[in-house]
Amino acid sequence: MIDAATRRLVRERAGGRYEYCGILQGHMSFPAFHIGHIIPQQHGGRDEPSNLALACYHCNLHEAASDGY
């Protein structure tokens, strides 16, 4: 489980942009965002900021479907 401080750090690091597609959060028609794992947990990815990315719903689903890499 990703704690609130780590989630806040990832959001701040991203500067209001989704890290995969680069779209500003404010330009999406819905405010939903996800903190996603770059390397999936099932492949040893951890809940560390360096392995987390701010992702829009579409990109997060795409990354999950492609197994993250």
SSE layout and pairings?
Layout: H1 4-14, E1 34-37, E2 52-55, H2 57-65
Antiparallel strand pairs: 1-2
Question: Mind explaining what this structure looks like?
Answer:
There is one protein chain. The chain is an alpha+beta fold. It contains 2 helices and 2 strands, in the order αββα. The chain has a two-stranded antiparallel sheet. It is globular and about 35 Å long.
Order of helices and strands: HEEH
Give the helix/strand class: alpha+beta
Helix content: 25-40%
Distance between the termini: 21 Å
Number of strand elements: 2
**Strand adjacency order, main sheet:** 1-2
What amount of the residues lies in strands?
Answer: 5-15%
| SS element count, helices | 2
What does this entry show, briefly?
This protein has 69 residues and is an alpha+beta fold.
What labels would you give this structure?
single chain, alpha+beta, two-stranded antiparallel ribbon, 69 residues
